[in-house]
Amino acid sequence: MERENKTLEYKETLTKSFLKTVSAYANYGTGRIIFGVNDDGVIVGINDLDQLCLNIENSINDNITPHAPYSL
Known about the structure:
Layout: E1 8-11, H1 18-28, E2 32-35, H2 49-63
Parallel strand pairs: 1-2
């Protein structure tokens, strides 16, 4: 897998810290966060993708103002 860099971040699980990355990418203009992958680039998987997507969407919408553009 590709190494993490200024426009790519891996997150093993959903934690509040991903919001800092979303904000940084919104200010920078681009970036990707890939969940289910650890910092070494090893795929660890996601148990409930639908629930994760809902939690990501709610976290971004509830905590970042003005709203950051994103896609899942």
